[in-house]
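Appendix B. Chain record.
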Amino acid sequence: MLLIMLELKQVNPLILFHKKVKAYIIAGLYQPTNICYPASGNNNHCRYFQSSWFKKFSSWLEYSPEKDAAYCLSCYLFGKHYGARNDGKNTFSELGFSNWKKVNNGVNCAFVCHEGSIPNSPHNLCVKSCDDLMAQSKHIDKVLDRHSDETIANNRLRGDDESSGSLNRENFIELIKLLASCNQNVHNVVLENAPENAQYISPSVQKDILHIFARKVRATIREEIGDSKFCIIIDEARDESKREQMSVVLRFVDKHGCVQERFFDLIHVSDTCSLTLKTEISSVLSRHNLDVQNLRGQGYDRASNMRGEWNGLQALFLKDCPFAYYIYCLAHRLQLALVSAAKEVCYVHQFFSKLTLIVNVMTVSPKRHDQLRVAQANNVANLIANDQIVTGSGLNQIGTLQRAGDTRWGSHLNSVRSLLCMFDATCEVLEKSTKEGNFSTRSDASAAYDAITSFEFVFVLHLMRNILELAQRLDVQECSLVIRERPANQPQYSLPTASQVAAIIVGDDIETMVRGRDIKVQTHTGNLKKIQEFVGYYDPLQYPLLFPFGTHGWDINTRTQRGNKVSCRTYYSYMLQERIMQKMLAEERYYHRRLWTVVET
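Structure tokens predicted for this chain:
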């Protein structure tokens, strides 16, 4: 018996809208040419729609035989976003255009006037929206994903060397120079042309500008929240300067019904006790007029100061608002799962135990910590002198070994990376420490040196770096679904046979709903064929109980006898009235419930 588990997920209405729009665009324009167009006007001077207009306006013109009217597909899909339906110009998007005598009037042609003579006309904006929707590779999330850490690091506002002789003074100075080159009035009062005490390019001025940007962004987020209920997602971490920083993320439902997550603030905290964190969070919320009584959720890790039932952060907020339910972070749960799974492997468990020993020996002593930084600086200098590493702004920084923590997402990968980066320097300092200090210090250093120089440790070090980098990306496309036999005491989870399972469909995530599912079926000849989910033969494949004879279901191109497009809901509403369809299944209620599921999906 195969047990199917379904997880209800909230679907973004905007994603559903884009999915439907994309289906319309893929289906193409409806431009019938082999029909007789009806006459309009008086009997003495009849006018007709002309099929030659399809060639002149091939990118957007559609014709409805039922209404004898012309429409614009782009404005129909996106017109409401650019005023094409609200300012009296909804002829081509809703009402339909049928005044044919105004088509061949030269520059006054109704079709030409609809397109507009400027790039930002409502029609051109709608056309651009259609093009942007289909160009998935140019969407901002795809563009940002393609940027590497090095590219992001090289696009900083402030630079290490902003002197006048520097070839790259970073973005702030370069943007001022760009503005000065475009406007002579600006050029006369900035940079070298301004008084030395009034150039306003110092680091403090740049920080003030960044703070102004931050305040405006937070004000926009606050306006977006309005009086809605919201949740808080909190995490704290120690930065490179050993200062505790707390990040605040707000999760809420906007006016369009879409769930939004916004990074709101980064706060320095003196310590990480629950009362201190609660005070700082409450201060941020009150400063932006966010009422704690509107708090409906708390998301933290499972550290004791967060999850404490009596004095934890979640308990303190529950006292103020009993509806602020606490849910711990799923990434933290995944981190715990990775750590637990890794400890089940003997070699990996021993590796992390030795890694912890090495980090403790190197960082517990300020003397060895300073020796490690000096040794790393010398190694970097030698590598640069021999042209073995690349130099540049922000590269080859002298850091320290990172400690791995079970409750910090990605901390194991950071620990492995830091040791790989400082491997030679660590070995050098440990070797010296085996000959210096008291017996206890020399014993710990000797054990750490023996561990780091062993083949097994070095092999697992590189292996875990590769594995943890894959887990850090969480790229589902690089994972595979494996169905295995369950234990004998759980027969309901037995491996299904080929006669029981036709397909396993994974979907309902944002990426799938935007670009559609990638579905392939095997034909009787054994070849694979790719199908789309909005064609007529998809429904009988996905819902065989509703289509026991393999009849076609709703299709994106389904039309009435008069040529009008038929929606999925209208099609199955009509099919429900057919007596033949109802006789196929004995359970009429089950049939209606399942068919409603098809319409909703």
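Further analysis of this model is presented in Appendix C.
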